[in-house]
Specification:
CATH architecture of the largest domain: 3-Layer(aba) Sandwich
Strand content: 5-15%
Order of helices and strands: HHEHHEHEHEHEHEHEEHHHEEEHEEEH
Strand order of the largest sheet: 2-8-7-6-5-3-4
Shape: globular
Number of domains: 2
Low-confidence stretches: none
Oligomer: single chain
CATH superfamily of the largest domain: Type I PLP-dependent aspartate aminotransferase-like (Major domain)
Number of helices: 14
Distance between the termini: 49 Å
Bound molecules: pyridoxal-5'-phosphate
CATH topology of the largest domain: Aspartate Aminotransferase, domain 2
CATH class of the largest domain: Alpha Beta
Radius of gyration: 21 Å
Structural class: alpha/beta
Mean pLDDT: 96
Largest sheet: 7 strands, mixed
Length: 397
């Protein structure tokens, strides 16, 4: 007996391979500096934790509406209105167990055999596999450092076919941290308006932007665009709530209700306690969010300056998220007496085993030549990690 053919279409998340090896080394007591993490290193804000404790004491421990409690969906609707200038009724919003589930269910709702999904690369690792699981086809569009790893209108036009059903935008981006300006989004929106496909706008890093960068929610660009956009967002990154598993999608009611159907036959509602805590996160003081944002900005500045001062490394200076995506190709085709570096995976393994620094190879995101370095870690570790990388690179000839 075998697993289904569907499973052979997808791989284990490659980010997890390096992370698993790093964890194993840590469990053996080795001092690994971990730049591979994709989650905030801050604890959840105290007011949010207290709200969860209250919810348990008040017996908010039963099933909620499959789509999420009215209170949380109202809080999300108010957030979208106040922060993004968008009007959504609670029927046009669904709460799920993380943004990942919202993305998965949106793709399941829209994609079937032969449908195409345009995905700019570097992309977040799960998008192509989610498309495969829905029997769709990913159309990967490679972008370059020169355009800030953003898809250009010309590239988008070229990628459109009669089968195009979705364009996925990740803004701010994981893994590059780059953000689309209003002008860039408007140019994309013009093409979307002229064609017949949807946009999934993954805005999970919305609140982590630097240097007063104006984050623009894609759906807010016009009424026409709003009708073609499913905005996916969540609390994991903005509120340091990765373990609570709360995300949401907002979009046209027929799509949200399709997602609702799928969710009703898989996980049902997101955790009732987490939903109660999320209401407090959205409605309570946002000071903690700003504290984290400022801290990430300082770390980005430090890590960016430190990396580009290393000979042979170039790096796009990102406007958001908590990742840098430096280019290491100048160190490819070099060796020590034991290691030879041909690809980003070799380099990630070399750094892990030689100087105990965990990173994620660019190949995991569909972009060879790069490593993703997360700075959701202490300044102390950033300093030590960069020194180790410098030392390891200096030994490659
Ligand atoms: C771009 C992007 N989208 C979605 C997610 C999923 O977040 P969650 O399911 O924790 O809400 C992540 C998490 O790493 C992410 O980086």
């Amino acid at each position: 007996m075998h697993v289904s053919k569907r499973i052979n279409k997808i791989g284990v998340s490659p980010t997890m391979k390096v992370a698993a090896e790093a964890k194993l080394m840590q469990s053996r007591g080795e001092s690994v500096i971990d730049f591979s993490v994709g989650e905030p290193d801050f604890p959840t804000p105290p007011n949010v934790k207290e709200a969860a404790v209250r919810a348990i004491a008040n017996n908010q421990t039963r099933y909620t509406l499959n789509q999420g409690t009215i209170e949380l969906r109202t809080a999300i609707s108010n957030k979208l209105n106040k922060e993004n200038g968008l009007e959504y009724s609670t029927d046009e919003i669904i709460v799920s167990a993380g943004a990942k589930q919202s993305l998965y269910n949106t793709i399941q709702s829209l994609i079937y055999v032969d449908d195409e999904v345009i995905i700019p690369a570097p992309y977040w690792v799960s998008y192509p596999d989610m498309v495969s699981l829905a029997h769709g086809q990913s159309v990967i569009v490679p972008t370059t450092e020169e355009t800030g790893f953003k898809i250009t209108p010309e590239q988008l036009k070229k990628a459109i076919t009669p089968y195009t059903k979705i364009l996925i935008l990740c803004n701010p981006s994981n893994p590059t941290g780059s953000c689309y300006t209003r002008k860039e989004l408007e140019a994309i929106a013009k093409i979307v308006e002229e064609n017949n496909f949807y946009v999934i706008s993954d805005e999970i890093y919305e609140k982590i932007v630097f240097d007063n960068f104006e984050f623009v929610c894609f759906a807010s660009l016009s009424d026409k665009i709003k009708k073609k956009t499913i905005t996916v967002n969540g609390l994991s990154k903005s509120y340091a709530m990765t373990g609570w598993r709360v995300g949401y999608a907002a979009g046209p009611e027929n799509i949200i209700q399709a997602i609702n159907k799928i969710q009703s036959h898989s996980t049902s509602n997101a955790s009732s306690v987490s939903q109660a805590a999320s209401i407090e996160a959205l409605k309570g003081s946002q000071d903690y969010v700003e504290m984290m944002r400022k801290e990430y900005e300082q770390r980005r500045n430090f890590l960016y300056d430190a990396l580009i001062s290393i000979k042979g490394i170039t790096c796009y200076k990102p406007e958001g998220a908590f990742f840098l995506f430096p280019n290491f190709t100048n160190y490819f085709h070099k060796s020590t007496h034991v290691f030879r570096i041909e690809h980003s995976f070799d380099l990630a393994m070399y750094l892990l085993h030689h100087v105990k620094v965990a990173t994620v190879p660019g190949s995991a995101f569909g972009a060879e030549g790069y490593l993703r370095l997360s700075y959701a870690t202490s300044m102390e570790d950033l300093k030590e990690g960069v020194e180790r990388i410098k030392e390891a690179l200096a030994q490659l000839h």
